[in-house]
């Protein structure tokens, strides 16, 4: 097979500086991300740059040859955000994995896009600090991908999503220009907030190569962990609303439904059978009365047994491990369409009812977990491993879930991003005038439309 002029130029300019993948068998691994229901095209090549200059060269070449570019971090997207298109260049930042600096005094770090989330948090821990965003994929997902999707996580109920931790960015535009945004300061109102714009842009405006991020003091006193079991998911949702209204200093609040608990128990034998919903809450360890308040509110909302309360870090890790097992347990049951809607916390019980009703109406299996403290639900639709594409009943149930979230004043995505899976719903949420503005922004950054085509904007 002859090599295209673009691939030949790419190898010529970058082959001696970083890895350029052109072998068809190897390229197959770059076709999809974790949204396996989204079919990926075959890239013309993949490049793993080591420096920002490498990224700039790759994008300059892609622009000059009119080749679409799909940026990729660790490939953990659940919305098809890193799904390749035929003939594209996949630009993977996984080799850009240096922590350029970490300043304990200013509580700021500058990290390259390929740094794994958990590695940054561990580096910060050596100075008594923490990197707050902690998506469920924190052990494998990278900062670049977290920033590109504005990822959340278990601790976002207190610390916010990734946008609240990003002070500035280094980004390479579609034509190879390198732009720096923001500043490593507490306050900065100079010009438009390009940093905020690029966070969550899903690789459609440029390639994020480095981020200046905010660090927080690591809690000295271990948090108190409260676990409550409920006879229904709706009762657990009511407990969430009451806890948020009461105002204890919550670090995280995670909700798991009975189907999820049973799937975990079948796999790991953790004694979870018979529970229809579980709420795992952590509160600041400096405020012991908050733990008692949470336990009391869970009991009042209908907890089936007295909630367990512990300030032992090892026990807390074991309890949180249950939450992190939710997605792999669902994968054991079949193919998964993992959804990601958010509603005001006061509407959480109603949203839970709407998810259950949609599942029942269309006869599909749904496992629901949630970052309940901020109203972000992850209903996971499970279907046969052998299915090609998303079955019609699953698609119909998912559409009902999206519609319900919007009807209740919420959003079609809280942290996974729009990607491919939700692009047809974006205009329904933001409206035609806002969509026109978003397309104008896209055109200003990427006039040739080469950056991550087919994602976000339909």
Written account of the structure:
There is one protein chain. By secondary structure, this protein is α+β, with helices and mostly antiparallel strands. The chain is 36% helix and 21% strand. The chain folds into 4 domains: 5-92, Uridine Diphospho-n-acetylenolpyruvylglucosamine Reductase, domain 2 (2-Layer Sandwich); 99-217, Uridine Diphospho-n-acetylenolpyruvylglucosamine Reductase, domain 3; 221-328, Alpha-Beta Plaits (2-Layer Sandwich), CATH 3.30.70; 333-422, Alpha-Beta Plaits, CATH 3.30.70.2740. The protein has helices spanning 5-14, 24-27, 52-65, 117-125, 143-149, 156-159, 194-198, 233-246, 258-268, 288-301, 313-324, 326-331, 348-362, 392-407, 423-430, 432-445, and strands at 19-21, 45-48, 69-72, 89-92, 99-103, 108-112, 129-130, 166-172, 178-182, 207-214, 216-217, 224-230, 250-257, 277-283, 308-310, 335-338, 341-342, 365-371, 376-383. Strands 12, 13, 14, 15, 16, 17, 18 and 19 form an 8-stranded antiparallel sheet that branches. It has a 5-stranded antiparallel sheet with strand order 5-6-10-8-9. Strand 8 and strand 9 form a beta hairpin. The model has no long low-confidence stretch (mean pLDDT 93).
Keywords:
alpha+beta; 5-stranded antiparallel beta sheet; 458 residues; Uridine Diphospho-n-acetylenolpyruvylglucosamine Reductase, domain 3; Uridine Diphospho-n-acetylenolpyruvylglucosamine Reductase, domain 2; 19 strands; 8-stranded antiparallel beta sheet; 21% strand; Alpha-Beta Plaits; globular
